[in-house]
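Supplementary Note 3. Input sequence used for the single-chain structure prediction.
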Amino acid sequence: MIYLSKMKKSCLISISILLAVMGTSAQERPEFEWEAPLPEVRSAGFYRIPVTPALSAKAWRNGEWDIRIFRDSAEIPYFIERNYEWLSEGDFIAYATPELVFVPGKETVIVFEPKPQQAIREFGLRYANTAVKKNVVLTGSNDRQLWYALRPPFQLDPAAAVPVKGKDTIIEETITLPVSGFRYFRLVINDSASAPILFNCVGFRRDADRREVIRRIGGVPMQLLKGKDRRTDRFLVVLPAAYPLSELRLQFLQPQMYRRDAVLFAIENGRERQLAFGSVSSEDSVNRFPLREAEACDSLVVQVENGDNPPLVPGDAELWQDEWGMTAQLEPGRYALRGGALGQRAPVYDAAYFATKYRRLAGEVLAPGDPVVLQKDEAGGESKTFFTSKRWVWLGIVLVVGLLGFVVRSMVREMKKNRD
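The predicted structure, written as discrete structure tokens, is reproduced below.
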């Protein structure tokens, strides 16, 4: 009986070890469906990576950008946003500074008051061009008596600042903070290790005049679908790929003057889903169907109500989409974009919190290559080993079941002997 008890304990220990190994082997890397290479990075810095039409056809999934940047197996955070055309820069408005104190060898204290009174999430600090970093504490107050922390101590970094246009000796650094509605804000700059910086002003930049950039990604012919009569015409638009579209533009060649109600549908799994309702008219040089949210589809149907009028002669359909771009901080090396792993959603990074800094520091453009479909043995990023092979996992499961059966059988026999 003692021998049997020891054997059962040994079996249980073996099962536990085997289950732990199986649990570890089951945590394989996600199998990505596609990969797009980036040009080799030769120097450290912040880089812009455009989302090309070919990349958008693979990366737009469930209304999100399913893109990850990898250097070997290391995942690199990035910031992604719509591209804008800047028509004019916003003016810089200086805040009042009711207190400005320099304590030699100790600190510089700057108290500023945003006017008109409003909540702020960032501000600009302008100071003389320098290469010295400074430790700073930022607090807020409503009475200039009690001061409350707004963010952990941070550094003023001239490398993160930008030159002020027309003032080559002045730089401007954007400082972010949680949305705050205090009346006063105080910056305490530590000068114990070096001479103070020459403060110029603190303020905010009015919203610049900008517009969203959309690009034409191709034109395709419209095909007339057969119907019972020509009172209602349906035109098929087949896209080269499942691009996310922001706008569809249509051209009709005849008749010379017309105005008809029209409905735009997407075809998904053999079913039609309405995307937009509007009209087509000869008074418009181009008939536009804007889409509220980017729709990723590979086939569209335009339904036009002719009624008693002569039918329309279709021309071409133009495909337009929003321009997006990623910004990432990269070190020298080779990188690739990957996506399409089952069960994974769009990544969320801290980089979005530092969007302003990423924007200001972004320089060279890295245009990705076209995505290629990965084979199953490539998608995981690593070759199969003894511990990652599914064949050995299933063999381990069979072995565990066998050991459990043996232990249960031995326990039943022991219980019968005890009864006898």
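The longest strand covers residues 167-180. The chain is about 15% helix and 50% strand.
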